[in-house]
Specification:
48% helix; 394 residues; 15% strand; Rossmann fold; 5-stranded parallel beta sheet; globular; single chain; 2 domains; alpha/beta
């Protein structure tokens, strides 16, 4: 009997130890967030900076214990700026990776990601670009970045306030933002002299010549930061020394100014606030980016990704509950839930409910403090956050 009793005690201790291990595994399970964006070539540098900003915020969160004990990780896939690849990436995230949310997108891919988000009832927290199609009755789409139409209208009003009636616009072929800028400026009487440049070629000779032939003092440069940098280098100081160059908020002025002459004067639209490099958010982002990879340089696009990820984490903190003990019956279900999580058997119904709760949790958040000098939020049922645009001189 004594031997039998010792055996039973040993078995109970083993089961208790196994149970504790499973509980630890359960409470420190991974939260996966998917990101689809174009990371290839010159055009991908802005998106890479944004991605590193997201990873920096997630790494900072994990170092502090994660989201209620759960580690958050980013699954990033390159869609090469292709809507077809973006759609495939989104289905991979939702069908195979069981992500709780998606990030990313672009002018040509955000609408595809929005469609998948609505079909799968999963949050798409857009931020890389916000073309008009993102705001067409999608229940599961929220954007940290303001609508593109608000930005282009603000820019056109800046021209009117400065007494500017004619502006040169250099834009990449098939630019959604140029079409929106044209639509915003026309009612205000601002005429756009447009020059397109190829997105798949390094030959800008024709575009450079056309830009030289236009005498307008104000020039709007649309596109990615590195390509704008190359265009301005081809144009040289004789061109931009006598002009004011305007940049949209999705362009990094530091990258644009690399290797340019001091005579380059930039006016950059910003929605995150003024003097961003002096904010608590930028300092925290820079310090944690150096921990992530000491060879990466901080940037305003990276800061935007960092802020977006922090906002997502706030929403996750409201919906993540590792043990889900909401009623007495949940106590009975807990061992089975732990075993499912421990063995990799995903509880699809529960995760879908969390995905729905995440959309709701974020959509009612107001006055968020993310270390900036402004306190954004989603108000009045809007899909985008209530930022205020400003113009910064660089």
């Amino acid at each position: 009997m004594e031997v039998k009793g010792c055996v039973m005690i040993f078995i109970r201790q083993c089961l208790l130890g196994l149970g504790l291990c499973m509980l630890v595994s359960y409470s420190y399970a991974d939260i996966t967030v998917g990101m689809s964006a174009g990371f290839s070539g010159f055009r991908g540098q802005d998106n890479l900076a944004y991605r590193y900003g997201v990873e920096t915020a997630f790494s900072q969160t994990n170092e502090a214990g994660g989201v209620k004990g759960e580690i958050i990780k980013l699954e990033a896939l390159d869609d090469e700026f292709s809507s077809d690849l973006a759609g495939q990436n989104a289905l991979r995230f939702t069908n195979r990776k069981n992500v709780l949310a998606m990030l990313g997108g672009g002018e040509n891919t955000s609408d595809v990601l929005s469609n998948v988000a609505d079909q799968k009832e999963i949050l798409f927290l857009g931020g890389v670009s916000t073309p008009p199609k993102m705001f067409q009755n999608y229940d599961n789409v929220l954007t940290v970045r303001p609508p593109m139409s608000e930005e282009t209208t603000y820019m056109c009003r800046q021209f009117v306030d400065r007494g500017v009636s004619k502006v040169t616009v250099a834009y990449p072929e098939y630019s959604v933002m140029y079409a929106e800028l044209k639509r915003s400026c026309a009612p205000l009487g601002v005429v756009l002299d447009a020059v397109s440049y190829p997105i798949s070629s390094m030959s800008y000779s024709k575009s450079v010549q056309q830009l030289f032939e236009l005498a307008n003092e104000n020039v709007v440069m649309l596109g990615d930061s590195k390509t704008i940098n190359l265009l301005l280098a081809r144009l040289g100081g004789d061109f931009y020394g006598a002009k004011t160059v305007w940049l949209a908020s999705d362009v990094d002025p530091d990258l644009v100014k690399q290797n340019q002459l001091d005579t380059l004067e930039l006016k950059v639209l910003s929605f995150l606030g003024s003097q961003l490099k002096q904010t608590q958010a930028y300092k925290a982002y820079s310090e944690n980016l150096a921990k992530l990879n000491p060879y990466l340089m901080p940037s305003l696009r990276g800061l935007e990704g960092y802020v977006t990820a922090l906002i997502l984490v706030r929403g996750l903190e409201d919906v993540i509950n590792p043990f889900d003990l909401k009623s007495p019956s949940d106590v009975i279900k807990l061992p089975l839930n732990v075993m499912r999580r421990f063995t990799g058997w995903v509880q699809e119904g529960k995760d879908i409910e969390q995905q729905r709760q995440l959309v709701i949790a974020l959509s009612v958040m107001e006055n968020l403090n993310v270390g900036l000098r402004t306190y954004p939020g989603f108000v009045d049922g809007n899909q985008s956050m209530n930022w205020t645009f400003s113009v910064e001189d660089y």
